[in-house]
Amino acid sequence: MTVTELQTRKAELLKSLEATTSAADLESFKLAHIVRKGSIAALFDDLKNVPKEIKPEVGKALNELRISVEEKFKNKETALGGPIHEKADTLDLTMPSRPLTVSEPGHEHPLNKTLDEMVGIFVNMGFDVAYGPEIEDDEHNFEKLNFAPDHPARDMQDTFFIKPSKDWKPESGEKPVLLRTHTSPVQVRLMESGKLPIRAVMPGRVYRNEAISARSAACFYQLEGLVIDKGVSMADLKGILLSFAKQFYGDDTKIRLRPSYFPFTEPSVEVDVSCYICGGKGCRICKSSGWLEVLGAGMVHPNVLRDCGIDAEIYTGYAFGMGIDRTALMRYGINDIRFFTENDYRFLRQF
């Protein structure tokens, strides 16, 4: 990848946008190039393979490409009447509702069932339950969680920003406002309160700028946990996670911890459980590995403790987080995450 190649690619994308004449084609362009898994994001992924002597100028050209395409896309979107929405005239409000048998009981949503069971397990182990706002500021969502200023998660391609607007400037001193990308800001608010020790879980909805598919959604549920106290160690974390796994997945469940990286924990681990479908022998669900990846965890980074006003020389802690939607997918054998939000009674009545 060279500067010349990027300039050529930028010209091709801008020309393609210029030739777009319908909102449907514009949406197709967005899904192909602008979203998190689009072609522009792939170019950023390839940046690591560029020789270091030309990386600065290639990186600059790549940023110019992204900014130019996003600005052109927004202008084109405005010119074509804004984002696509379902037309109201496609809904026939005169159609009768589906008849329901009076004696038929209601059904709990599979996401609620999964989340309630998980929260109940942690409450029984002495955890409190904490909630926080879904509209957050950059300070609580990124800055105090040790995210670098240029971290990809801060990019418009990954996060839904409410502010800044197109006229926003960093020197204004105004903090960006966004839809939270994880429930970790609730952890920050708990630590800022100064009420120690902390032992709590944080369930809730989170938002990421993802292309909606059978395996991913722009809005989904997470459950995170935080423990801060004197003398907390990695052994405590492993014990809690093993206890949770046995209660939720079955008494024979085993766990394994693999080294990983998260900005807000050090050390960080990915946690797998032995496949509860095949008993660890290997099946389609676990891709014949015998293991299922279920959550990320680690010891709270000292920088995070200090930024939240906690003495990192006295207190330590651990944190963990897991997605509820994909856990429910595996548990109930569902093959499309979109079923959870389509509100189809034929689906919901199975639970």
SSE inventory with pairings:
Layout: H1 3-19, H2 23-34, H3 39-46, H4 55-79, H5 110-124, E1 128-129, E2 135-137, H6 138-141, E3 161-163, E4 177-179, H7 184-192, E5 198-207, E6 219-229, H8 234-249, E7 255-262, E8 265-274, E9 291-300, H9 302-307, E10 316-323, H10 324-332, H11 345-348
Parallel strand pairs: 1-5
Antiparallel strand pairs: 2-4, 3-4, 5-6, 6-10, 7-8, 8-9, 9-10
Helix pairs in contact: 1-4, 2-4, 5-10
Question: Summary?
Answer:
The protein has helices at residues 3-19, 23-34, 39-46, 55-79, 110-124, 138-141, 184-192, 234-249, 302-307, 324-332, 345-348, and strands spanning 128-129, 135-137, 161-163, 177-179, 198-207, 219-229, 255-262, 265-274, 291-300, 316-323. With 351 residues, it is α+β, with helices and mostly antiparallel strands.
What are the defining features of this structure?
BirA Bifunctional Protein, domain 2, seven-stranded mixed β-sheet, 351 residues, alpha+beta, three-stranded antiparallel β-sheet, 36% helix
Write up this protein.
With 351 residues, this protein is of the alpha+beta class. The chain folds into two domains: 3-79, no CATH class; 110-348, Bira Bifunctional Protein, Domain 2 (BirA Bifunctional Protein, domain 2). It contains eleven helices and ten strands. The strands form two sheets. The protein has a seven-stranded mixed β-sheet with strand order 1-5-6-10-9-8-7, sandwiched between helices. Helix 1 (3-19) runs parallel beside helix 4 (55-79) and helix 2 (23-34) runs antiparallel to helix 4. The longest helix has 25 residues, at 55-79. The radius of gyration is 23 Å and the shape is globular. It starts with a helix and ends with a helix.
